[in-house]
Design goal:
Number of strands: 14
Helix content: 25-40%
Largest sheet: 8 strands, antiparallel, barrel
Number of helices: 7
Structural class: alpha+beta
Radius of gyration: 24 Å
Strand content: 25-35%
Order of helices and strands: EEEEEEEEHEEEEHHEHEHHH
Length: about 325
């Protein structure tokens, strides 16, 4: 039993894929993506005859179950990740609509709020640099933003002033936050962000969801986040209810940082104060053993999994991070 995703032969359609479910003689939908990873996907039902005789298959997903339950179809994939999804039949705008959603996208459903469309900080068009390695990046749809893709040394979204990055935002889903926190990678990431004049971490979920985790102790995650905020107080970790709200917060934050760089920095330079200058910042905190160990592994150095660090590892860290 397989779920099939094929390329839609109708090149004029805005839905580039065909989804076929193994129910009865088959159910066929036009859809926008191959799996509801970041948001629920709209599906347009079409007759089975629209399925091509020689389809260009994009993806085959072996299923453990595909069962219709009332106004929904439960789809369970036979794989380690992204197993569960659901095809939901509902009514909106006076007509029947079908959406393909997963547990993650359902949790991230947009809260009952209307996002503003006014320009952030009055900027006509804000240029936001998106890290070239960012998967499924924010589109900033509906905002006055121009995005540029290129590699960033730290963070996922940034703004620059006089060709220099002055603010960056690291985006995290809740699973990614937990994984990077428990592995020590998040400490290393915050250490890099601390070198920038302004930086933040935005999480696409509620803080309360930490205490619903079942594969890691919630107290361990909460304590780890509290320690990071004490260690790097200048880097806020902001929890937003959904991906859409996290995107909005990122836009507003970067716009405010851009305005700060254009107004406050020149004023501070004129009065001869180095406070808040883009070329200065708080002294870097002494690295923790976990942070140095994570850096050493990423650099290909041989380091023990636990215990005290060898002097040559500490010297390598200091040499790599010296001004």
């Amino acid at each position: 039993m397989e779920l099939l995703i094929a390329r839609n032969p109708d090149t004029e359609s805005t839905l580039p894929f065909l989804l076929r479910l193994p129910l009865g003689d088959g159910l066929v939908f036009r859809t926008k993506g191959t799996w509801p990873r970041t948001s629920a996907l709209y599906c347009h039902p079409v007759p089975v005859s629209e399925w091509p005789s020689q389809p260009e298959i994009v993806e085959r997903v072996v299923l453990r179950a595909c069962t219709r339950r009332g106004a929904a179809i439960d789809v369970v994939a036979d794989r380690g990740r992204e197993q569960r999804s659901q095809i939901v039949f509902t009514h909106a705008r006076g007509r029947e609509m079908v959406f393909w959603q997963s547990p993650r996208t359902r949790k991230q459903a947009r809260p009952d709020v209307r996002l503003p469309t006014a320009r952030a900080a009055g900027i006509r068009e804000l240029e936001i640099v998106v890290d070239a390695h960012e998967h499924y990046p924010y589109q900033f749809t509906g905002q006055q933003v121009r995005t540029v893709r290129r590699g960033l040394s730290c963070g996922d979204y940034a703004v620059s002033h006089h060709s220099r990055v002055i603010a960056s935002v690291e985006r995290k889903s809740l699973p990614d936050l937990v994984s990077s926190l428990t592995s020590g990678r998040l400490r290393y990431a915050l250490g890099e962000l601390a070198a920038l004049p302004r930086a933040a971490v935005v999480v696409e979920d509620r803080y309360s969801q930490i205490f619903a985790l079942d594969r890691v102790r919630p107290a361990q995650v909460a304590d780890g986040l509290a320690e990071l905020q004490v260690r790097w107080p200048t880097i806020p970790i902001v929890f937003c209810e959904s991906r859409k709200l996290a995107e909005e917060w990122t836009y507003r934050y970067l716009a405010a940082a851009h305005t700060w760089a254009q107004t406050e920095l020149p004023a501070l330079a004129r009065i001869g104060s180095g406070e808040g200058c883009a070329t200065s910042g708080p002294p870097d905190p002494a690295p923790s053993t976990t942070e140095v160990r994570a850096w050493a592994r990423a650099s290909g150095l041989d380091v023990a999994l636990r215990g005290r660090l060898r002097p040559d590892i500490i010297q390598a860290w200091q040499k790599a991070h010296s001004p």
